[in-house]
From TrEMBL:
Residues 62-383 form the Tryptophan synthase beta chain-like PALP domain. Belongs to the TrpB family. NCBIfam families: trpB (TIGR00263). This is Tryptophan synthase beta chain. The modification N6-(pyridoxal phosphate)lysine is found at residue 95. One of its GO terms (molecular function) is tryptophan synthase activity. It comes from Muribaculum gordoncarteri.
């Protein structure tokens, strides 16, 4: 984490990525967000903070996560496909990277109560895990729909000592959980809100991307030792709010030779009303404290997103990704439920790796690309599929 100052996100002091980002927050949260911003900039380059972060990454999370050349998958696409194995992290996804960074920051700010929102439950589990490790109170908001479809993660959070609050408003998924978490923070300003993605008011999108940037930092050094070069030709990641993609893209953003591909959840199709493809279907607006692309009606009512994957059905997108897409830096590919399921079963059967439904969207993008035999393609496998087994079982005869 020491070479960070060489790499900066395309963000200004007010938290804008081009015209996206900023901090649109109620008056009651101004002080909180200011204190957070101040603490973040004070500690992010602090040697002791980074030492503690790096030690936990190595000894607790099990990093570096392997960069694995998937031989049979590479053969199938006649190119070189490497999987960045975030699924092998403790708790089963990339979410733990940000949870540890954020909670370490909270502790330095003297906070004792942690709030989080969660969709698929992975961020909730990661936050509950770090709170158990550090002896902090943890409250997790989760849409009632997601509580039902991600039961194993709910049980894990409870076992870890977190209070899980099912949210019954809206269509009871991630957006609604986020609304409730923000409401809680307004009422309990002495709490620390750990946001699970590159969304929310500045400094969250930048901070979460920074904690996740360990992914692309490792990709560079691992490729170097695998093939003698640091930069791949392609990096592919799924985007919901966008934290795993931000981490996988981070150290390549300012290198135009590396093509960045964001796979978003098309649900039943971008032209249907059952989709979560925000970049494709969204228009500029404000959600959860940031100006970004939002799925909304012409008069600004949020359109409920849909995806088979609980972690991708968010009606917004991190401002960094809105900016990268609008400038053409990323190629954005919508991947449907069907394409993601197909890709998940394929990876399982030819590589023996069961991916999370979210990560399966990144794998689904492979079919939409044209690779050369000597291309180096890195797919960020953001999480493992344990939490999605009941969904996979419902479709096992179809694929």
């Amino acid at each position: 984490m020491n070479n960070y100052h060489h790499h900066t996100l395309p963000v200004n002091d007010a938290g804008y990525y081009g015209r996206f980002g900023g901090a649109y927050i109620p008056e009651i949260l101004h002080h909180n967000v200011e204190m957070l911003t101040e603490a973040y900039y004070r500690y992010i380059d602090d040697p002791q903070f980074n030492q503690q972060f790096n030690d936990l990454m190595r000894d607790y999370v099990g990093r570096p996560s392997p960069l694995y050349r998937a031989g049979r998958l590479s053969e199938l696409y006649n190119t070189n496909i490497y999987l960045k194995r975030e699924d092998l992290n403790h708790t089963g996804a990339h979410k733990i990277n940000n949870a540890i960074g954020s909670v370490l920051l909270a502790m330095r700010m003297g906070k004792k109560r942690i709030i989080a929102e969660t969709g698929a439950g992975q961020h909730g589990v990661a936050t509950a895990t770090v709170c158990a490790l550090m002896g902090l109170e943890c409250v997790v908001y989760m849409g009632a729909t997601d509580v039902a479809r991600q039961q194993p993660n709910v049980e894990r959070m409870k076992m870890l000592g977190a209070t899980v609050i099912p949210v019954e408003s809206g269509n009871m998924t991630l957006k609604d959980a986020t609304n409730e978490a923000i409401r809680d923070w307004c009422c309990n300003p002495d709490s620390f809100y750990v946001i699970g993605s590159t969304v929310g008011p500045h400094p969250y999108p930048e901070m979460v991307a920074r904690f996740q940037s360990i992914i692309s930092e490792e990709i560079k050094s691992q490729l170097k030792s695998h093939i003698g070069r640091e930069n791949p030709d392609y990096v592919i990641a799924c985007v919901g709010g966008g934290s795993n993609a931000a981490g996988a893209f981070y150290h390549f953003i300012d290198n135009p030779d590396v093509k960045l591909v964001a796979a978003e959840a098309a649900g039943l199709g971008v032209d249907t009303d059952k989709t979560a493809a925000t970049i494709q279907a969204g228009t500029e607006g404000i959600i959860h404290g940031a100006r970004t692309l939002v799925m909304q009606t012409p008069d600004g009512q949020i359109i409920e997103p849909y995806s088979i994957s609980a972690g991708l059905d968010y009606p917004g997108i991190g401002p960094l990704h809105a900016y990268l897409a609008s400038t053409g830096r990323t190629k954005v590919l919508p991947v449907t439920d069907d394409e993601a399921l197909r890709a998940a079963f394929r990876l399982t059967r030819i590589e023996g790796i069961i991916p999370a439904l979210e990560s399966a969207h990144a794998l689904g993008a492979l079919d939409k690309m044209d690779f050369k035999p000597d291309d180096i393609v890195v797919v960020n496998l953001s999480g493992r599929g344990d939490k999605d087994m009941h969904t996979y079982m419902a479709y096992k005869d179809k694929y």
